Amino acid sequence: LKILRESSGTAFLLAGMSGNLTDRAFYGHVIDWFYLGVYINFADLYLCAGGLLLLVCCCRCDGRGHGACGI
Predict the structure, then answer these.
(1) Contact 30, 42 (CB under 8 A)
(2) Res 71: pLDDT
(3) Which of 32, 2, 71, 62 is nearest to 10 (CA)?
(4) Cα–chain-centroid distance for residue 26?
(5) Structure-derived torsion over alpha carbons of residues 40, 42, 48, 52, reported in degrees to the nearest 10
(6) Percent of all residues in the chain with a pLDDT value above 70, rounded to a whole number
(7) pLDDT the model gives residue 49
């Protein structure tokens, strides 16, 4: 399950980065798609989801009361 979270987190980060880079390459700026209190796009959602998955994976408790990242 940890490998799945890591690979999913990495895939989400790569998808978000490539989406934003593609927008910047073709339009010179990132295009926002919908409004949720602030304007946001799917690439930003993927970046946040990927970062959150990798953070959760990194800081899971290792059974001794400490997370793998020392928190």
Answers:
(1) no
(2) 46
(3) 2
(4) 22
(5) 140
(6) 75
(7) 92
Tokens of 14: 């790569």
Longest dimension (CA), the chain: 50
Confidence of residue 62 (pLDDT cuts 50, 70, 90): low
* β-bridge mates for residue 39, sequence order: 35
Beta carbons of 43 and 15 less than 8 angstroms apart: yes
Which residues share a beta bridge with 34?
A: 40
Asked if 32 contacts 40 with a C-beta cutoff of 8 angstroms, the reply is yes
Neighbours of 19 (CB within 10 A): 19
Neighbours of 34 (CB within 10 A): 9
Mean pLDDT of 35-64: 80
Phi and psi torsions of 35, nearest 5°: -115, 120
